[in-house]
Amino acid sequence: MVRERQEPTPEERGRLMHLWTETSHRQLEVPEEELFVVQHVQIEVPAYAPIFASVRCAVCGENVVEMRARVKDGQPVCIACASLEQGQLDRAGISTASWGVGLTA
Ligand SMILES: [Zn+2]
Question: What is the overall mean pLDDT for the chain?
Answer without folding.
Answer: 84
